[in-house]
Design goal:
This protein is of the alpha+beta class and 367 residues long. Helices cover 38% and strands 16% of the residues. The radius of gyration is 21 Å and the shape is globular.
Length: 367
């Protein structure tokens, strides 16, 4: 589909997010803030579908010098009775989810092992073991890499839980929609605090779904009918309340790690083009679209993102493969492989095995 061209010299605002007003009448909705945002999410899905527009790139010039984006809220599909969810991301189980997104829920990460790399606002942040980091509802964030040995706890908290839990001035920072300073709010935990929080998270995982299922569905099932479940929702909710306050106390007393890397415009553009699904371009075409040479793009991308461009592209293809393979239409393995952008089954097999340590047939769910 060709881009929608804007010939005016008007320069659009920065990327925006749309949220519902908590004062809007929402019928019998038990929590206006949660339901209002989900209503807006559904409304924009319907609107974009009606006009056959892509969700990310709504207007752009041919030269791509001017662009305007509407970032539709990611629906984490948290059912009634759940105040949030928690799961352990493991690089050897986790299908890469590398698209930029945000959601109405506050997100917390704890790096248990290896490194985790995010891009926010045109800067790269790489977090080491024992790092606690927070992603606020209005912070558009993109996971761009997990080290081969990475383990990273991800917890999300509904606004309603935060409102009930945070009533004193000490916890007002949890009610913000975005970080009051640029970048990612984070702290490197002392060993004792790290062990306490990790053990708390470990205990809350008892009664959760199988780790392979949670990782395969990326916690909440992007593009599928999956929704998070736990064997003891009440126990999980109570634990999330305790975990939220415990982690915030540790954040306020911890040591902030500041290692942000400002990204070159060509790297930012490459990330955006690739995350939007433009996998048909070879390196030369991608470099031309970014306005630089192949060698400069490859070298700068690796230096600033921390991984080779080829590895990042293969991770995106692997992410696309998972989305296609588990669709209701039930594509065959071979169909999903080629539709995801792999040039051959041999290439797919090599990338899959490097990512998960096993061949596709050994760990793919029945289709």
């Amino acid at each position: 589909m060709p881009p929608y061209v804007m010939t005016s010299s008007w320069r659009p605002p920065d990327p925006v997010s749309v949220h519902a007003s908590t004062d809007s009448p929402l019928g019998s909705c038990p929590n206006n803030r949660d339901c209002g945002d989900k209503a807006i999410f559904s409304f924009f899905q319907s609107l974009l579908s009606h006009y056959n527009l892509p969700a990310k790139n709504v207007f752009s010039t041919d030269a791509q010098k001017l662009s305007y984006f509407v970032h539709v809220l990611e629906d984490l599909k948290l059912r009634k009775g759940y105040d949030g969810f928690l799961y352990l991301v493991e690089s050897t189980r986790h299908p890469p989810k590398l698209k930029s997104h945000h959601h109405v829920e506050l997100e917390l990460n704890l790096v248990v092992r290896g490194t985790v790399t995010y891009v926010l606002s045109g800067r790269r942040f790489t977090f080491q073991r024992r790092t606690l980091l927070w992603l606020y509802p209005e912070q558009e964030h993109q996971l761009v890499d997990l080290s081969n040995d990475a383990q990273n706890y991800v917890a999300v908290f509904k606004p309603s839980l935060i409102d009930r839990s945070c009533r004193t001035e000490a916890y007002l920072g949890l009610k913000r929609k975005t970080n009051e300073h640029d970048g990612v709010l984070n702290t490197v935990l002392e060993p004792d605090s790290f062990d306490l929080i990790r053990k708390t998270m470990d205990s809350l995982m008892r009664g959760s779904l199988d780790p392979d299922v949670l990782n395969r569905e990326a916690g909440f099932g992007v593009g599928s009918a999956f929704s998070y479940e736990h064997g003891d929702p009440d126990g999980l909710n109570a634990g999330l309340h305790h975990l939220l306050l415990l982690c915030w106390r540790s954040q306020r007393t911890g040591r902030v790690l500041g290692d942000a890397v400002a990204l070159h415009p060509a790297v930012r553009r490459a990330l955006r083009l690739l995350s939007e699904g433009d996998s048909s371009q070879d390196l030369g075409q991608l470099a031309e679209s970014c306005g630089v040479s192949e060698s400069y793009l490859s070298r700068t991308f690796r230096r600033q993102i921390g991984v080779p461009l080829s590895r990042y592209r293969n991770s995106l293809r692997l992410s696309r493969f998972w989305e296609l393979y588990r669709q209701p239409e039930q594509k065959t393995l071979a169909e999903a492989v080629y539709a995801a952008g792999f040039g051959s089954y041999a290439q797919f097999y090599k990338v899959f095995t490097q990512a998960y340590g096993r061949g596709p047939r050994a760990c793919l769910p029945a289709n």
